[in-house]
Amino acid sequence: MSRELKNAWKLIKAHESYRRKTLNLIPSENILSPKALKALSTDLAGRYALKPEFYGGTKYIHELWTYAEELTRKLFNVEYVLLEPLSGHVAAILVSHTFAKGGRLATLPAEDGGYPGYEKTKIPDLIRAELIELPSSKEYYTPIVEDSMRVIEERKPELVILGGSIILFPHPVKEFSEIVHSYGGILAYDASHILGLIAGRVFQDPLREGADLVYASTHKTFPGPQGAIVLTNSFDVYEKLSENIYHKIVDNIHLNRLAAYAVTVEEMLRYGMVYAKKVVENAKHLASSLDSLGVPLKAKDRGYTESHQIILDIQDSEARVKVRDRLEECGIIADAGVRFGTNEVTRRGMGKREMEKIAKLIHRAIEGEDPKKVKREVRTLLNRFQTLKFC
Ligand SMILES: Cc1ncc(COP(=O)(O)O)c(C=O)c1O
């Protein structure tokens, strides 16, 4: 029996071709600039460096590392930065291990927009912490301020985490800051989704509002390589986190990632504000266009969103999977949330007119039009937007 052998490079190329011809609305993804992508496949991909210095051959690596830290401090207007976490999840483990190990950790439930990594059986189980779920709105995906403050006051969790995986509106950082600090707790903000919007000054700035630290993936609205960073203005927080990094949470920090990240920060310093403003404008416009076609959305009475995300209002999880699959048949990539994000289409240079077009294509896909016909129009649209902007 003969079986065709798979070929890795062919699969990589097939994937690239497929994603070039499909319209991506997954809010946790983005496309890297050609220069950042190139940095990932440089010599740095096979090297090691540690702090304090251990390996030889790293003089340029350490210079690059210091430079990336300087750029990060500048972009986010912050004093202390950690570029080591290999991903947002790793950063979440670092932060929760440091501040809530064996104690109490409070955040939004995953079904209300919190990060699923904080479900009881996941990170809390790993660090032997008790999970305290903050009462939250299923319409706006924000904590209900008074109810949550009551819970925090009663239970005094060592660590409170705001931010999340579904995030449409700012979270009550200012409101929670005083109460969490009154008993010596730490207020963290998971900005994995909205880091690019913070960099572009179009979303809340948690550190300025009273959060002790921000941690975030660098590849969702922030259009960098997959990885994560931590930001803080507190030397004490920085020191405590630093003690838990090397040989606990990471060893090799993946230096090609660091290089691609540095390139992306340079680009964001230059274009970040225009990009981020456009991302949010596009999200609002996509939402209002979908709404006018009768597609049900969350948070309509608050203008749908202040971020890159919009959320389809579909109760049943199986129905949501069907929508995701139906959209993919039509050349539109989404998740089973169903969350749509405008970060990638904005990077492609799309604007108001294209958001109206995309809304119509989504509506036609959901309404059951011949997928081939919709797919053809998706491709025609994409063909006009193959050159990345903001880089
Ligand atoms: C809010 C939030 N935090 C953390 C993560 C994990 O990030 P990563 O995929 O970089 O590990 C995610 C993933 O989507 C997320 O949505």
Description:
The chain is α/β, with parallel strands linked by helices. The protein folds into 2 domains: 36-265, Aspartate Aminotransferase, domain 2 (3-Layer(aba) Sandwich), CATH 3.40.640.10; 272-383, Aspartate Aminotransferase, domain 1. It is 45% helix and 10% strand. It contains 15 helices and 11 strands. The protein has helices at residues 8-20, 34-40, 59-76, 88-100, 123-126, 145-155, 173-182, 195-199, 206-209, 235-242, 255-292, 317-329, 343-347, 352-366, 371-383; strands at 23-24, 80-82, 104-107, 130-133, 159-163, 186-190, 213-217, 228-232, 309-311, 332-333, 339-341. It has a 7-stranded mixed sheet, with helices on both faces. Strands 1-10 form a two-stranded parallel sheet. Strands 9-11 form a two-stranded antiparallel sheet. Helix 2 (34-40) runs antiparallel to helix 11 and helix 3 (59-76) packs parallel to helix 11 (255-292). The chain is globular, with a radius of gyration of 21 Å. The model has no long low-confidence stretch (mean pLDDT 97). Pyridoxal-5'-phosphate is lined by residues 28, 87-89, 92, 115, 164-165, 190, 192-193, 217, 228.
